[in-house]
Amino acid sequence: MNLGDPPIYTIRLSGELEIGRKNEIREALQVSEDSGAVLLDLGEVTYADSIALTELLRFCVGAQRDGLPVALVIRTPQFARLVEYAGLASAFKIFNDRAAAVEYLAECLRR
Amino acid sequence: MVPRVHAPLIFTLVLLLLLIVSLVVGGRLLQTIVTTSFQNAEGIRGSRMLAAHVINEQLDEETGIRGYAAVHQAILLEPYYEGRSSFPSSVSRLRRALQERHQTQALLTLDDAVYVNRRWEEHVAAPSRSTKPGNSYLALHGKWLIDRFRIDMVRIDTLLAQEEARGDARAEAAILWIGIFAAAAVVIVVLATVLFSIQQYSLGLRLEGERVAREAEKRIADTLQEAFLQRVFPTLAAVSFSATYLPATEEAKVGGDWYDALQLSANRVLLAIGDVTGHGIEAAIAMNRARQLLIGSALLDPDPRRMLERVNRQLVQEDGTLITAIAGVIDTSTYEFAYATAGHPPPVLYEPDGRARLLEVGGMPLGLAAGTVYRTQRLQTVAGAMIVLYTDGLIEHSRDIAAGEAELLAAVDAVATQPQADAAAAIRDRIFGSREIADDVAILTIRFADARSGGARAGPVDDSTFTVGIEAGKLSAPGPSAFWRIA
Fold first, then answer.
1. Domains in chain A, number
2. Looking at CA atoms only, how far is residue B456 from chain A in angstroms?
3. Which residues of B touch A47 (CB under 8 A)?
4. Would you call B98 helix, strand, or coil by DSSP?
5. How far apart are CA A58 and CA A26, in angstroms?
6. What is the DSSP letter of B422?
7. By the CB < 8 Å criterion, does B440 face chain A?
8. Cβ contact B439:B393 at 8 Å
9. Range of the domain at A21
10. Considering only alpha carbons, which residue of chain A is nearest residue B370?
């Protein structure tokens, strides 16, 4: 889903992310070529195993390497804790509010 | 695995079920055919019997009339009257029987026979009873009518006989088909059984092969893991170590967890714990590589942040296996604990005057991105403090991380206040009393000796003689024998 111009590409995942959903997660974690920024909406994710976390980390790092600003929306405390362990906050902007994330990305695109 | 075991079984069961149903239906069909054929034959035999009655009655009539015509004795007419009285009822019984069997041709023929009989009655029998004997016209006319009547009745009998033969042929054909069907069913059952046996046999071979391969991999991975896990820790008066490793219950999940406690200098000890994403031999090999890199890096420069950064750069260059780890250094003379984390769950610190708490975490896993920055956290702890490093299996046994953390902190609180020699095992037992271990778990505890226990603190050793590092391309340490304090 693309919002705005240049577009913010939004990826939304929810529930428990685990090895059984690896293919689904991989398919979801694709960015269209015209995207200007990536919003990874994980607001409804409650758990992720190490395989799923690895996929998320690789995706975020890859997007950043491609020069795309990345923002994550994380709301559930359990998942926030896992993301904290994974060190995502040290490299990516994390919001608990989608609107704030969109605003941040829009600001990145204006710059 | 499960569908492969069940598919041939289900196939065979369905086939057998179909065969049983077919045999039951076939049996019923055979029964019906035999019964119908028997009833048909009985019915035809009955009809032929009725036709014979009609002929007999006509014969009685004729006999009576012939006798009377010859000698004009009234008594000789008795057979005629008997035949005459029962003829209509016999005819109507035969007609009903033919109607039931749908013998249209035979019915038409019977109509003709009755018509002929009536004509014989009118033109031969009635005049014969009133005229003198020897009327040749009547005799001739009578013979002609009777011949026609008999031809009719023979035709009816022939038609019935043909019908009986046809019924028998139908029954024979049906029985033949049922025989073929039953033979085919037996052949199919035999084929299905053979096929099933072959499938089961080959499946058994394949499963056995897979099991042997799995066991071999597990054995190799177990051996590697066993070889890598440190059993002997630095012997220091000021600090004691304990560790435990629990392999996952599941065969396939031999993992890449490791820990190290290695003396770097008189007062400094390197602490490391890590977890390679994935399982099996590859994970064990990646684990060994990461461990070597980390130790090598610690020997170069024992700053946790720089240790991780060097290992990370190397791993990213190599193959990009993701590894979570904590690198830490304790100073046994100052109780300082410096550490950096890479995607790993937080260390637990217990201090005698408070409760166990989770320390801060930082950077992303090793092997992910070359430029990842890590941060060294420095903590001043106290005598009697305990640090617990562990891998995620210890707190992620349920999916509620907060509950897992709370349980771990409670276990550390309970264990740290007891003077157990093997604190790691005690923590493990508190958390995994009766639980299945889904993922590998490694636990490393570091306990600073209590200040009250005499001589606990390391003496004032000149630490510089043990410093390991490279300065201007030269090793500053006095000699290799001083690097290692592994008993």
1. 1
2. 34
3. 399
4. helix
5. 10
6. -
7. no
8. yes
9. 2-110
10. A61
Going across the sheet that includes B255-263, the strands are: B255-263, B268-279, B323-331, B336-342, B377-380
Subunit contact B401:A78, Cβ cutoff 8 A: yes
Quote the CA–CA distance of B235 and B219 in Å, as a whole number: 31
Chain B residues inside the 8 Å CB shell of A82: 401
Closest CA of chain B from A35, distance in Å = 22
Q: Which residues of chain A are within 8 Å of residue B392 when distances are taken between CB atoms?
A: 50, 85
Do B185 and B23 meet the contact criterion of CB atoms below 8 Å apart?
Answer: yes
| Of residues B322, B324, B364, nearest to A88 (C-beta) | B364
Tell whether B367 lies on the interface with A, counting CB pairs under 8 A: no
From B364's Cα to the closest Cα of chain A, the distance in A is 4
| Residue B264 CB burial class (10 angstroms; 0-12, 13-18, ≥19) | buried
| Chain B environment of A58 (Cβ under 8 Å) | 368
CA B169 to chain centre: 50
Is the CB of B361 inside 8 Å of chain A's CB atoms?
A: yes
Q: What's residue B321's pLDDT? A: 83
Within 8 A of A51 by CB-CB distance, chain B residues are 277
Residues B325, B9: Cα–Cα separation, whole Å: 48
Burial class (CB in 10 A: 0-12, 13-18, 19+), B422: middle
Encode chain B (487 residues) as per-residue pLDDT tens digits: 444 556 667 777 787 788 788 878 878 887 888 788 888 888 888 999 999 999 999 999 988 888 888 888 888 889 899 999 999 999 999 999 999 888 899 999 999 999 999 999 988 888 888 766 566 677 777 888 889 999 999 999 999 999 888 888 888 888 888 888 788 888 887 888 888 888 889 989 999 998 888 887 777 767 766 666 656 788 888 899 999 888 775 554 556 888 989 889 889 999 999 998 777 777 778 888 888 899 999 988 899 999 999 999 999 998 778 899 999 999 999 999 999 999 999 999 999 988 999 999 989 999 999 889 999 999 999 999 999 999 988 988 877 888 899 999 999 999 998 887 789 999 999 998 877 777 788 999 999 988 655 444 444 444 443 433 333 333 333 333 333 333 3
- Residue A6, domain CATH: 3.30.750.24
Q: CA-to-CA distance for B365 and B379, rounded, in angstroms? A: 22
- Does the beta-carbon distance from B399 to A16 stay under 8 Å? yes
Answering whether pTM is above 0.90, one says: no
Q: Do B392 and A85 touch (CB under 8 A)?
A: yes
The ipTM value here is: 0.89
- Interstrand relation of B441-448 and B239-246 (parallel, antiparallel or unpaired): antiparallel
- Our CA-based measurement puts residue A52 at a distance from the nearest CA of chain B, in whole angstroms, of 11
Q: Which residue on chain A is closest to B361 by alpha carbon?
A: A85
* SS3 label, residue B185: helix
